[in-house]
Amino acid sequence: MHKRYEKWKDIVRISGASGLRLIKGFHDEALRGKWKGHRSSRLGIQYRVIYKIEAQDVAVYVIEFNAHDYRKR
What we know:
alpha+beta
């Protein structure tokens, strides 16, 4: 999963978070509920990266990189 995360970071570095939305494999999406204001990208079947974009900054803050829990809460 490390290689996929490195690829994710390269895309963000080169084309910003908007570049992630152009690659369907990442399934980049806005989150709701307690994660409102954050986005999520799929790095594989099990892993996601949760991040937040602050204003117009180029900085992307990775909040969490974890195994995704598909159980409904």
